[in-house]
Amino acid sequence: MTQPESGTLLVVGDQISTELARTLDLSGRTWHGICFEDQSRSTIPDGYWVGAIIDLSADPEAGWSVARNLRRTDRDPIRTLVLVSGAQLSELEHRDELFDDFCLTPFHPTELEARVAHLLASAGPVATKSEVVMYENLALNLETYQASVSEQPLDLTYMEYELLKFLVQNPGKVFSREMLLSRVWGYDYYGGARTVDVHVRRLRAKLGEEHADLLQTVRSVGYRFGRSRWKP
Amino acid sequence: MREQQCDYVLKTASERGVRMVRLWFTDVLGNLKSFAISQNELENALNDGMTFDGSSIDGFSRVQESDVLAIPDPDTFQILPFGDKDAAEARVFCDIHHLNGSAFTGDPRQVLRRHVEAARSEGLTFYIAPDIEFFYFTPPQPGERPTPLDFGGYFDLTTRDVTGDLRKQTIRTLEQIGIPVEYSFHEDSPSQQEIDLRHDDALTIADSVMTFRHVVREVAAAHGVYATFMPKPLEGVQGSGMHTHLSLFTGDENAFYDEADEYNLSPLAKSFMAGLLQHAAEITAITNPTVNSYKRLVPGFEAPVHLSWARNNRSGLIRVPIPKRGNPLATRLEYRSPDPSCNPYLAFSLMLAAGLKGVREGYELPVEADANLFELDDRALGKLGIGQLPQSLSEALHVMERSELVHEALGEHIFEWYVRNKRREWMDYKTHVSQFEIDRYLGKL
């Protein structure tokens, strides 16, 4: 594979449709297509891409895993547009942090062109979101991966941290265990929803008696983060 | 995933000012081994592993291929809550590899990993919850008998009780490092404690048992006492076991549960249990690894002696606990012979292998033995077709040596080394002339 030029638009999908290729070519974009199976993309250093289009319609799992990887580079996150079919809109729920814009497939070429132009125009330093998420005296620093409760460090493993981060960013909402599994672990995880239960229990243990009830079990539904609104 | 985990570990180590990272692994006998690296070395260790000379680790390399590679499992990176606050220390469990990258056959953690992955390829996840018993003693002078710290009994709540405080602090430490505790209480014998861990997948629990034994000893040492997992430290009272609760899940469904069955047990649970019963004697040298282990497996002390199962009979080898509120997720088997001195990686591997052999070959489950078996004599038991667990380490080794199941499940390297090592232990014991013999025979004969 030849190395793409710096400033190229990254296009990832199960396969790159001719429709998509034609639209990008006609609008004069320099772009580089990679299929999910092609592992060689990991050899391309950060900083090559001005933006990314991820086509989720054929294989959402693989697509989200690419999106997650793009977001986890040390540099500024790459502006990302995802393509989804109308039936897949629920895929976008609670994944706001993984993409900047989306477009429905089949897309209208003019619309996609306009969205890509907008995506790239707003590239550059992304408006920095607050790096520290707080809930009562629980704090998560998203930049340094550090969590603390009453200013005492909370020493979490990676998946415990990822689960707590997701929940703290969505306080008060009830999530089913399946939802948490797909949002936090991604689809490639084998353990089933029991995995979520054991991680919740480890988190509760680490939070200690005083704060364990921040992670509430919602009977026969799943979990909710935060104090019940009926008990201030 | 691994890349992101490593990134997380490196950032955490630097943010928390970790000075030393302890690389943990387990030898074939079940001893926790550790070597430390500085934070600067961590990235290198995560990427390429750390080479060390395995020749002096029990059951590891033969001399001509002594160098092995420890590759940290970033998912187990954990800052330890003891030691100097300003110079934090962390531990990470390692898998041991040959220098060419292939899995090292002498590494117990990789043996369990192999079994867990084989089960997973059939869609099964293996969950375990161990109940671990141990004793606290004041440090004895050489040649002295161990002295208990208290004379409490089962569930006793003693006032100003030292062991209660130790237990409380141990639990707090365990929870801080992500090992949730379900129950804890004073056990039957003086100074004996029990701490029950919540279920998790088998590999995590094996790591947790190793961490648990370390934490219990650390907390005890910090208070000038010591903790022991020796199976039978005091004669005439109960010894320490590690009752092990087992279940298999297919995704979110408990594969052991069947609503229609009178015991709520699925056919898979029954043939799994039949497999465990059938092969129990063969795996006993691993689940009960010392000369002393067999002084616990005697009648009259709530330790199993017979190869039987029942729902509410604690004299049998396997108990089927009745789940609270009939919760299908809680249906499980409790395997009662193991003791806490065993190597948990190897013990869990063999429980899984024995059970799954029963499943694959469709073993028939014997009838429930609900009588108190301790009250029956050998003839009555023979009539019921109920055999016994091995009565000594020697007997257990004799059965293990002939077991294809154990040979295959442990692999040639560990199997051969283990039998050789334990035979030597038995010979050392056999040639020892004990106080019992002096007291009993010297004057009379």
Descriptive notes:
With 232 residues, chain A is α/β, with parallel strands linked by helices. Chain A has two domains: 114 residues, 3-Layer(aba) Sandwich (Rossmann fold), CATH 3.40.50; 94 residues, Arc Repressor Mutant, subunit A (Orthogonal Bundle). Chain A is 30% helix and 24% strand. In chain A, the strands form three sheets. Chain A has a five-stranded parallel sheet, sandwiched between helices. A four-stranded antiparallel sheet of chain A has the order 6-7-8-9, covered by helices on one side. In chain A, a hairpin with a 3-residue loop joins strand 11 and strand 12. In chain A, helix 1 packs across helix 3. The N and C termini of chain A lie far apart (59 Å). The mean pLDDT of chain A is 82. Chain B has 445 residues and is of the alpha+beta class. Chain B has two domains: 102 residues, Roll (Ubiquitin-like (UB roll)), CATH 3.10.20; 324 residues, Creatine Kinase, Chain A, domain 2 (2-Layer Sandwich), CATH 3.30.590.10. Chain B has twelve helices and 17 strands. In chain B, the strands form two sheets. In chain B, strands 7, 8, 9, 10, 11, 12, 13, 14, 15, 16 and 17 form an eleven-stranded mixed sheet that branches. In chain B, strands 1, 2, 3, 4, 5 and 6 form a six-stranded mixed sheet that branches. In chain B, strand 9 and strand 10 form a beta hairpin. In chain B, helix 3 packs parallel to helix 8, helix 6 packs across helix 10 and helix 8 packs across helix 11. Chain B is globular. The mean pLDDT of chain B is 90. At the A-B interface, helix 4 and helix 6 of A face helix 1, helix 4 and strand 11 of B.
Q: Are there runs of chain A of 5+ residues with pLDDT below 50, and where? A: none
Multimerization status: heterodimer
Report how far the terminal alpha carbons of chain B are from each other: 71 Å
Alpha-carbon distance between the two ends of chain A: 59 Å
CATH architecture of the largest domain in chain B, please?
Answer: 2-Layer Sandwich
